[in-house]
């Protein structure tokens, strides 16, 4: 899915007027790729990468909770939630703390990705 997004954005960038102007001025493919297309793709790659990391964290925790992920001797937040669900009535924090850690980690990766996109995106410079 990430490759499709990057391919689509690359194709859209290749059809923009400033790329046609560079070709008209005699710029080679390498120059166009490294000076114009890649700088526009970096924010997208970073955002999709951080989204992928947070999705992977959530998926690993879910699979471990269901028992098909990391096996019990290896620590995992999904395993911790599964093992502590029997104590939920007496000590609910044993379930809420690992759940909150999963939530905060996924949220942190998404926020870092958004912040990096805002800093690195050349189309956002000068707009406020």
From TrEMBL:
Family matches, as InterPro entries: BP-dependent_transpt_permease, MetI-like, MetI-like_sf
GO cellular component: plasma membrane
Compartments reported by the entry: Cell membrane
UniProt topology in membrane: Multi-pass membrane protein
Pfam families the UniProt entry points to: BPD_transp_1
Alphabetized SUPFAM superfamilies for the sequence: MetI-like (SSF161098)
Gene3D superfamilies from the UniProt entry: MetI-like
PROSITE patterns to which the protein is assigned, alphabetical: ABC_TM1
GO biological process: peptide transport; protein transport; transmembrane transport
Alphabetically ordered keywords of this record: Cell membrane, Membrane, Peptide transport, Protein transport, Transmembrane, Transmembrane helix, Transport
Membrane-spanning segments: 45-70, 90-112
Ranges of residues in domain ABC transmembrane type-1: 1-113
Subcellular location, principal: membrane
Family designation: Belongs to the binding-protein-dependent transport system permease family.
Listed name of the protein: Peptide ABC transporter permease
Lineage, top ranks: Bacteria, Pseudomonadati, Pseudomonadota, Alphaproteobacteria, Rhodobacterales
